[in-house]
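#struct-pred
JK: can someone run the complex with benzoic acid? inputs below
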Amino acid sequence: MIIQNEKDITDAVCAEMAKTPDLRLRAVMESLVRHLHGFLRETRLTEEEWEFGLAYLTELGRATTPSHNETILAADVLGASSLVGFLNNAVSSTETEPALLGPFWRQNSPLLSIGESIAKAGTPGLLMRVAGRVMDDRGNPIPRAMVDVWQADPRGLYDNQIESLEEMNLRGRFEADDQGYFHFLSVKPAGYPVPTHGPTGALLRAQKRSAYRPAHVHFMVSAPGFKTLVTQVFADDSEHLDNDVTFSVLQSLVATFKRHSELDGAPYGIGEPWCSLTYDLALASGESRIPVAPITC
Ligand code: BEZ
Ligand code: FE
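RT: done, structure tokens with the ligand placed:
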């Protein structure tokens, strides 16, 4: 089709794409083009702004490395990752609500025995005991479910963010017992700013936004016959619960990380001040699928 004026372009592109044999690809691309063109018309984007936008996308790619995923970070701070999570995980009142995977999950973290610590020797911080039970959405235990956990340290850093931090620290996988129970030791995490050295940080600064996430522990729970649950549990005494830069905090995911004196620790062999988090995780029936890791090292 010969283009007569600006208004023809959207239909011309869609007509050209109409032969796409994959019907889902066709529908998604048509919607993308219609919304993109609508956005360009609505904002009357200037050529300078368009060039800037394209250079920005290029920078997202350039800033992405095997150990850092800037593209996911940008999607997270725009609320897009959380929205996709909501749209694809409509949960019943008895399932645990999901939260985004984030850019820091690493595949194949150490397989530990129940009760072991994910904090390697010398990790600073308040000792934390985490316990819970993996269940289906009717409250029946899911025996031998795999509970993959990861978290930041009390300075708000993940192991792979700084060369000097110990490899795979504060990450681990636990197989729940025959009744679905698991527990492990760690240190209380801190809230932290998402990485701001790249184009995502530049955007946050331009928008005068906080880069912080509240303190949390990540969980990925999987078992055959159940939809993999990816979620985060947030400390109720943390700052930034109401302005998480990634829009992930749901009320049901806020829990008390209860403080104890060393006197309470005897049953667990704990002889120092500590805190405890007890949180059960309920999975829906479905296909067990492990996400693609956002980073490879
Ligand atoms: C995280 O919780 O690990 C995270 C999520 C989104 C952006 C940055 C970090
Ligand atoms: Fe995190």
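RT: quick notes.
Helices lie at 8-17, 23-43, 47-62, 70-77, 80-88, 199-206.
DSSP finds six helices and 13 strands in the chain.
JK: thanks, will look after standup
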